[in-house]
Design a protein that fits this description.
The protein is α/β, with parallel strands linked by helices. The chain has 4 domains: 4-179; 234-300 and 319-427 and 625-646, Rossmann fold (3-Layer(aba) Sandwich), CATH 3.40.50; 431-490 and 499-616, 3-Layer(aba) Sandwich (Rossmann fold); 653-748, no CATH class. Helices cover 43% and strands 12% of the residues. The radius of gyration is 27 Å and the shape is globular. The termini are far apart.
């Protein structure tokens, strides 16, 4: 009898009854085992990953599962399959058991395995010998379980070792399933010599285009770049790039990473960025320099619902991101949660991180409540899996070991690749700071008047609601011809990027340009305003937004105004604690002139600030009565770790924007093309390239708002049975982005 792994699919999504187009189980197990082994080769975990590939679908040899594929019975506990390969490995190796058991449902907490294996309906003890016989009849004897490598010498190393095997297995399984009957394409190799040459060409073209190539700023940028290239030959590990805004960090960090990868045989460069606005800007810049096929931009994470049964995981699992490009540009949310997630869709890309050069841009935004587990995993990746990290920032946090941060880096661990950072800060000073007096506040109408009096001005606030309120006030003050620009995370990436390009053009042409934004523009976005306003917030945010002021040094000094809003509400948690600590730090800097001088030119202010902050916030998740992330990791409680290790407490759900309320097209043509696509039998209508193209038109909606839209039928599936949703027209404002509640009156007056 033939045993099958998967049915084929007809163009309408129904099962193809022609079994000749179904994938044989022996073929699937063989291909997944070989793919997993290939993915694990750079990790030196080949034997573990190959065995997991052979075992993962052992339960599909059950007669009940084959009847389910033929449509002769429905899905039930008797058609579960992942637990059988896990049961065979259970008495031999947890590192093999957990990945196999969780390759659909996600990594389980270790303590849950005995209960899963004891379900009477599965009859594991009676069934397992026959399943092993069927597998070995088709594929030969199973190899013995390998001994863990020598470096897996404690609970935390074992936890991460298990995650990497899981990642190799999941990626291999999803790739083979999605590509069948074709073979997955090989990864695009990092061509370090070629890409380095392109970086040098870009540097030369920028120097030629500069209005004053011999200026002190240009000389400093060249010195920073050349020093970083020289230091790329240093052994792999941890590096810092501490350069003030305008010092060329984006190009320099990439040049260092490529040169370092060339020197040490690393296989990709991963750029991790906190804000979507910087990702959009930097990814576009890298694509222009290196080409579209080299750079993968990944910021939107769509995932199947958690409550789906094991056999009902949707096609999203097949198209989830796996980082198979040479240069990855991603968010800190995507990167950090991949290190600690339990779900297959998030963990799938984890095995691509070893033997990479990872650039953490604007590293000061690393979430303080995750520092302890994050540093531990970084050290594991550096010590045992050949990964190097570059911490890049104009406000380098105090990550060095101290009483407030016992898990920080020793002086010899974190090596600086910029020349004399303290001297650079003094030479690159370009702004004056104006701080609020004790008890002084500013309301939105008054601030709008001040901004209206300045043709070019930027204001960054702490809340999306504040940005909307100030934008509306400013719109009332200005003439109809001078509409202010609003930026926030309520806009899709393509919309934000087009607005940032518009801002640059207006600034360069000397045209009026007044911008109200949330924090997403304050770090890394290449804009140059003469005047900037910043609501009181974390100290690094205040100093980062100053980098958008007089960025190119065209003025004797730009003016940065820090103010306390009348409605001084702040996001909860660490952000609020950091803002409070910033107020304490600012109060210690002396009079306005002294404070301005120290903020503009003394990096020690930031070191002291961060060390004080780490004294008042917990650097490992902690709630009263609960274990920490590190304690859960030691006990192999993967689901608990995933629940706690959240960069954002409510990630929400992405929705696709087709049009705005004035008919401007966003994803509409792409949606139409996907929905009308003709596909051959057995082929999928939706693939990973589609998902990558759609992410530019997605906006994340808080979970309760998503449920509200779903209940009112204001979102529709992109395709039947595909959990990606398109927002109905009427909710996307052309200036404000997604507005569900309290929509502006002009929405109804078009």
């Amino acid at each position: 009898m033939n045993y099958y792994a998967h049915t084929a699919t007809l163009p309408d999504g129904a099962n193809d009854p022609n079994t000749e187009r179904w994938q044989l189980l022996s073929t699937h197990l063989h291909k997944v085992a070989n793919l997993a082994e290939k993915f694990a080769a750079p990790l030196n975990l080949c034997a573990e990953a190959k065995l997991a590939g052979l075992l993962h679908d052992l339960g599909k040899y059950r007669d009940e599962f084959q009847a389910y594929l033929r449509g002769e019975r429905g899905s039930s506990v008797e058609t579960q399959h992942a637990i059988f390969g896990a049961a065979w490995a259970m008495e031999r190796s947890l590192a093999s058991t957990l990945p196999v058991a969780g390759h659909h449902a996600g990594l389980h907490d270790c303590g849950d395995l005995p209960g899963m294996l004891a379900k009477p309906a599965l009859r594991i003890t009676q069934t397992l010998p026959e399943l092993i016989t069927r597998l070995e009849t088709e594929l030969g004897p199973l190899p013995p379980l390998p001994t863990p490598p020598a470096w897996v010498d404690d609970e935390l190393s074992a936890e991460f070792y298990t995650r990497l095997i899981f990642s190799c297995l999941v990626d291999a399984d999803r790739l083979d399933t999605a590509c069948w009957p074709e073979t997955p394409l090989p990864d695009c190799v990092l061509q370090t010599a070629q890409l380095l040459e392109q970086v040098h060409t870009e540097r030369s073209s920028k120097a030629k285009a500069a209005k004053n190539p011999g200026s002190p700023l240009a000389v400093l940028r060249n010195r920073i770049f050349d020093t970083a290239i020289e230091r790329a030959a240093l052994p792999p590990g941890f590096f810092s790039l501490t350069v003030p805004t305008g010092g060329g960090k984006t190009l320099t960090s990439m040049a260092f990473a490529l040169a370092h990868a060339k020197a040490h045989g690393l296989r990709r460069v991963i750029v991790v960025i906190p804000y979507l606005s910087i990702i959009e800007q930097n990814a576009a810049e890298y694509r222009r320099i290196f080409g579209e096929e080299v750079v993968l931009e990944n910021h939107s994470g769509v995932r199947p619902k958690d409550d789906l049964k094991e056999e009902e995981k949707s096609r999203l699992e097949l198209v989830s991101e796996n980082w198979d490009a040479p240069v990855i540009v991603t968010t800190s949310v995507q990167f950090l949660e991949s290190l600690f997630a339990s779900s297959p869709s998030k963990c799938r890309k984890l095995h691509r991180i070893p033997r990479s050069a990872v650039i953490f841009d604007e590293v000061q935004t690393l979430p303080a409540h995750l520092l302890k587990p994050t540093f531990n995993v970084f050290r594991e990746l550096a010590a045992n899996y050949g990964t190097s990290f570059v911490f890049s920032s104009a406000t380098q946090p105090a990550f060095r070991k101290c009483p407030a941060l016992p898990d920080g880096f020793d002086p010899h661990e974190l090596r600086e690749i910029a020349p004399e950072p303290d001297d650079l800060f003094r030479k690159l000073r370009r702004v004056n700071y104006h701080l609020p007096k004790t008890g002084e506040t500013l309301d939105w109408p008054a601030l709008a008047e001040k901004m209206a009096a300045t043709p070019q001005a930027l204001c960054v606030v702490n809340l999306t609601r504040h940005a909307k309120e100030l934008w509306e006030q400013l719109k009332r003050v200005l003439s109809e011809k001078e509409v202010p620009i609003h930026l926030s995370s309520a806009m899709c990436p393509q919309h934000r990027l087009s607005l940032i390009q518009m801002i640059r053009k207006r600034l360069a042409a000397g045209q009026p340009c007044r911008v109200v934004s949330t924090q997403l523009i304050e770090a890394g976005v290449d804009v140059d305003f003469p005047v900037v306003w910043r609501a009181l917030g974390p100290l690094d945010s205040i100093v980062q937004v100053a980098g958008r002021c007089n960025r190119e040094g065209r003025l004797a000094a730009g003016e940065v105004h820090v103010f306390r809003p009348v409605d001084h509400k702040l996001p909860p948690g660490v952000y609020r604690a950091a803002a409070d600590q910033a107020m304490i730090t600012l109060a210690t800097l002396g009079d306005e002139e002294s404070a301005s001088n120290r903020l503009a030119a003394d990096p020690q202010v930031f070191r002291d600030y961060f060390q004080s902050l780490y004294q008042v916030v917990n650097t490992d998740y902690a709630k009263r009565g609960e274990t920490s992330i590190q304690q859960d990791r030691e006990q192999l409680r993967f689901r608990e770790v995933s629940r706690k290790a959240k960069v954002i407490s409510d990630e929400g759900q992405p929705v696709i924007i087709a049009h705005d309320t004035r008919g401007r097209e966003f994803a509409a043509p792409l949606i139409e093309e996907i929905r009308n696509r003709q596909v051959a039998p057995g082929q999928y209508r939706f693939n990973r390239d589609d998902l990558r193209r759609l992410q530019r038109f997605m906006v994340n909606v808080h979970s309760h708002k998503f449920q509200q839209l779903e209940a009112m039928k204001h979102i529709q599936p992109l395709l039947p049975n595909l959990e990606i949703h398109v927002l109905n027209d009427g909710f996307y404002h052309p200036e404000l982005g997604l507005v569900i509640d309290n929509r502006p009156l002009d929405d109804f007056l078009q």
